[in-house]
Amino acid sequence: MLTSCDISVVVLAGGMGTRLRSRICDRPKVLAEVSGKPFLSFILDQLDSAGFHDVILATGYMSERIETTFGNEYGSTRLRYSREMEPLGTGGALLMALPLIGSEIVLVMNGDSFVDADLNDYLGWFQQKNREASLLLTNVQDTFRYGRVSVDDRGCILGFHEKGVSGPGWINSGVYLFERSAMESVTTAKALSLEMDFLPDQIGKEFFGYKNKGKFIDIGTPESYSTAEAFFSSS
Fold first, then answer.
1. Does the domain spanning 4-136+172-233 belong to CATH 3.90.550.10?
2. Which residues of 17-35 are buried (b: 16+ CB within 10 A; e: fewer)?
3. How does pLDDT run across 85-111, given as a tens digit for each residue?
């Protein structure tokens, strides 16, 4: 069974942060400052602590700022970069990073959200039953902003539901484990959304959700970004 030190990680860090322009206008979203350091630092700290030491940052907008900020090492983690020259979407950015991925299983994370989860437990769970694709689910009190994910009793993903449905439920927290072969099977155009294109196509295959009850935050809006400091100070 593979462990964290055997796994390549791709962090999707190419977003412009258009909705955050009123708060950050001089940097990409993953460099938005929280408690005196870039938001991306919290994700890299989590990965380093869990023993994931091969991280690929899939960058786009203002990529040079990210590379200048973090360089080639973070703690005991090696950092490499896959820079898109034009917007490719989350799926396209992941496919572009494929040549840098050195493992048959890859951990993929959104660079603008954070979930308090045991990533090693997630990796072990993924390998127990030869799963091909999975997403880490987080339970929230109101799914209105995020959309929700439905699963059966075995944890198999049944479907994705659009944003706008209120009430508690499970959401996609933007943390994935994929067999490399699942990504290599994609033959569509370069621009591709993981959420809209790739994930729905996995329904009916060996596609499962790992239920996690840890706290979750994304910084995609000024309102959520304003809560980030309190989120990490209480973690």
1. yes
2. bebbeeebeebbbbbbebe
3. 888 999 999 999 999 999 999 999 999
User: Residues 93, 84: contact at Cβ < 8 Å?
Assistant: yes
0.85 exceeded by pTM: yes
Nearby residues of 52 by Cβ (< 8 Å), 6 or more positions away: 4, 5, 7, 9, 77, 107, 119
CA distances from 217 to 102, 135, 171, 228 (A): 29, 16, 12, 7
Average pLDDT over residues 34-49: 97
Q: Give backbone dihedrals phi and psi of 20, rounded to 5 degrees, phi first.
A: -100, 10
**Listed range (75-79, 100-104, 194-198) with the worst mean pLDDT:** 194-198
Confidence grade of residue 187 (pLDDT, cut at 50, 70, 90): low
**What is the C-alpha to C-alpha distance for residues 191 and 141, in angstroms, rounded to an integer?**
33
